[in-house]
Write the structure tokens for this entry.
Amino acid sequence: MSYDIAQKELMYSGHVACPGCGAPMAMRYALKALGEDTVLIIPASCWSIIAGPFPYSAVQVPLLHTAFATGGAVASGVKAGLEARGLKDTTVMTWAGDGGTFDIGLQALSAAVERNEDFIYVCYDNEAYMNTGIQRSSATPWGAWTTTTPVRHPKERPKKDIVAIMAAHRIPYTATATVAYPEDLTRKVLKAKSIRGAKFLHVLSPCPSGWKSEPAQSVLLSRLAVQSAAFPLYEVENGDKYTISVWPKEKVPVIEYLKLQGRFAHLGAQDIAYIQEYVDSEWKKLVAKAVASGQSVPS
Amino acid sequence: MSDTIVFESEEQMPHLPMSVGTTLYNKTGSWRYVRPVYRNRTSPCNHVCPAGEDIVDYLGLVKHGQYEAALRRILEENPFPGVCGRVCPHPCESECNRAQLGGAIAIHAVERFLADLPQARQLPRLEASAPSGASVAVIGSGPAGLSCAYQLARRGYEVTVFEAAPHLGGLMRLGIPSYRLPREVLDKEIEAIAALGVEMRTGMRLGDNLRWEDLQQYPAVLVAIGQHVSRRLNVPGEDRQGVLPGLDFLRRVNLGERVSVGPRVAVIGGGNTAMDAARSALRLGAAQVRVLYRRSRHEMPAVADEVQETEQEGIQIEFLTAPVKVLSNGSAVCKLQCVRMRLGAPDESGRRRPEPISGSEFTLEVDTVITALGQETNLDLVADRMECAHGLLVSSNAAEASPLGEGAWRKGLFVAGDAATGYGTVAHAVGSGKRAALAIDRYLRGEALDGFPALGDPVRVAARDVDPTVVRFEDLNLAYFEEETPTLQGQRPAAERVGDFDEVNLGFAPDQAGREAERCFSCGTCNECDTCWLYCPDVCILHRDGSGYEINYDYCKGCGICAQECPRVAITMEEELKWNK
Amino acid sequence: MEQVIMGNHAVSYGVQLSRVHVIAAYPITPQTQIVEMLSEFCADGLLDAKFIKVESEHSAMAAVIGASSAGVRSFTATSGHGLALMHEMLHWAAGARLPIVLANVNRAMGPGWSVWTEQSDSLAQRDTGWLQFYCETNQEVVDTVIQSFKIAETVLMPVMLVLDAFVLSHTQEPVDIPDQEAVDAFLPPYIPKVRLQPGEGHAFGGLVAPDNYMELRYKMQKAMDEAVGVTKQVGAEFGKAFGRNYDVLERYRMDDAEIALVTCSSITSTSRVVVDELRAVGEKVGLVKMRMFRPFPFEAVRQALSGVEKAAIIDRNISFGQGGVFASEIKAALYDSPQQPVVFPFIIGLGGRDVTPESIRGIVRHVQEHDRPEGEIIWREVRR
């Protein structure tokens, strides 16, 4: 075995994710890390459909589908219920999209983590409302095309910094992850599982359908996102200790990441430069936070 | 669990929308129009190995500590890993893709490590295919002849090897000094071939005590007489005492004679023979040894490692220098008149032709001149029997030598090695001899030779089914590889080693061989790294019992992530035309 | 144990006695005392429950759906706008077949802000699949909480019990609080077969295509149909255990009534007084108290109203563009009855405007003086 990943599969084939979708990849890794003693909660998102229609399921663990805004609230109730039955160690994991996390689900999420409910909240982020046909969310990055931010009027606001929001709640553990780094993702899921309290994972999940990219390139895109620092991998403990997980050996110019996605095809050189500047300055800030937390920059 | 569920009435349904089955009912394989297939491609090392070794495969075995199996893989194709691991110019390493990310794999050192494994050498036999009573004569016990003898003997043929010299091995013994190739190593590899039942007869010289008539009893004969004639210098004074043809010099040294040389020695040439002659002269006590080469370092045919070792030993190489005249004082050589050269237009070999710079003549004080300007076949031995061209034996079709006319000879005459190809390396000779053996086997079993690989084409005994496309560096997925520098085998320090003929290179320890094998990209060859299994979004790649992977095409959507991420181009996406069915 | 308690606290006692395990609620006037007392019960160890202090009513219902799905008895309480905010999730709880109990303090909807009693909030949720019980007294409140869990857990549909804002919620009445032992005997622990259980990999609530959806809805309606009988049965059992019988509706002095007042909630108490008064002077007036509104008790309503000439339906609610909800549903129930009273649909008391005995007397007079109602709505005590 070349990878430090559990062999046992807890997700079935036959699910209806688009070819090349990052979301089932992320779920597969998360379930491998968590094992069978897990209850999944899925608010409205692509995974509501990926999981298969009644009377079928694509995962081996119990799964509670729920309404869009309720990821944080339902998890709180499920956890309370399981604990009342004596199942104190069962992992409760909400698996929500960016819409159900950044937008309509933000309130319930904020409340649940503010109460430090003992659950893992994973936001698998494909950066738009993909299930309903690619409409913008507050997770859509600046400049991206979506059906509600068409090419003549692309998204003008930067991507909402959900990790900062979570960190501001001072929860025990917040981290980013993505599908090109499965060992990093599973390590973080396991770390979350070992902590009592609220844990939040922000997982970048490439979407060939919505990003207008090649299905075969989803892992490549996910890797480029990290290597260009467009989506850095890091952890925040208790709201203020920052640790960068992957230091790109040589920061790849962000255009290498953007040019593989049709949703950015309309951007001109100035736009790309603007994005590069933004990515660079955000990376610098993150590095400063990591250094202030005691991490040393690798040579 | 994987059937479609249909509820005949509401009573059969659960009272709430709860699943009772899994998505395995849904064969998403119907979605795709391209499908991934595991299809190994050709690694560049395999592509160029003149002996036809499956390098990428045996490196994979070394990586897993399976040394015996790795050695066996080599022995299928080449019975001389101990020799090749030491003396081969390793074109595999020149083509190795790892060269572009840290440095080529030290394949030769790994091969030597395997050859040096202490267990007794037992060459693997094959299912006997020889028709009963089939016997073959092999003329020449160099690498070509012995490789052919091995491949035939392991198939059950009766083989007799005729060797003119008193010892077996051809140029392996006579041309390569023991500090590069210890005698015990060579002896062990030759003995293993003899142990298969090959009859070895030394002191049998073709045209002398071995006549063509004596060979009539053999239904097939291989002529593998090599190239033992040194090319002449063609300068005045060449035939004086003190001017030694390189091959003759080396033969005497390698047979144990303490040839008297020096104190000042000049070696003319730029190939391995020149390096061998120079370093041998040094070890025989010459105070100063110089090599004169008429072209530049860039054009030297000698293996780079060897040139480096030569220079480390204090031997100076004078580039763009050529001898013009040998001067002697009475009967002893005392001077060598030389001229400086410059490179002009390319000649027919593609290399730039050296031109003397007039007025640049100078004289060197020398006592011994050794010439190493290349070898030729002694065609006198066969000229009345076989067609020759450009100094080489001609092969008329893919397999057979060209006998001269009806009366001169008959079918069943084969050629191999330097005498036929002029390539000049042990590995080429091994490959050539193997090819001849396979041709002879076909011929003796009554099969046609049409379409058989031509002389000089690669031939494998135990070939894997592999796509002929060669994997280049740009094809690899570099996300999976870090820059890693090679491990070097130990080497005796120059000052110490020039005093004797003991081996200079010390070989690899197992962990070193392992480290090199770990660095191998396994170009084009699945080595079960699990990357495809890891990334499949549809859980369609399954570990197959035994080895490798199986794709569950019932569900594979053809996304192509496996092929894209495979670090080593071992997966191909094929179009799947379902709508035509 | 007899105590004089407010309606909200009656809810709290009912919940405590029912040994609820998870409560999730968001404060809203006039519900707050329910959850405040429950918090104290939890803090004092008098109730072994987790109280999730959610950040909205939508989340409150979501949380109890989560808890109930995990297989434990769960409860929430709300009012007015809070109930309205829960609307999406009320549908969800019913479709998920979860035996959740919710106490709703009937409150008028804004704008303008109103905290006073009106039935529009709960009636606006009548399509969601929740059972609805309207309580007349604080005694009925505590008794109905306990019965609600039993009924819910039998038919596997959620139950809403409703009490008037301030008139009941904040008004102290004498209540006989049942013994814990007696309640335990009446209401066993909730141990469902179907729940979230590690090791049992079911998915709940996934996509249902048209080829299966209707059957699931059919089953929900079937459960509702069953709920009528179950309610009667549970009400009778309760009577045996605690001495107070309950039914889907109550007929008061209806035997020879010519005019029937149809009321629910606290207006019923007021109406009883007026009926007694009128009977004392020979008026043939009776009272039908609607207790269960969902499922709609068609049989009981038809039987109760078949003999009367006129029925005065008192709606403390309005469905804009239509009229009083009780009136509309009762008329629909009577449509196929061979003997139909003339129905006078009154709307009164919106936004908590007081409904006094005089209001009731006025209604009876109006019915006596008119052969037919003059419109779809008979507005009472509106300044026009």
Chain C has a mean pLDDT of 97.
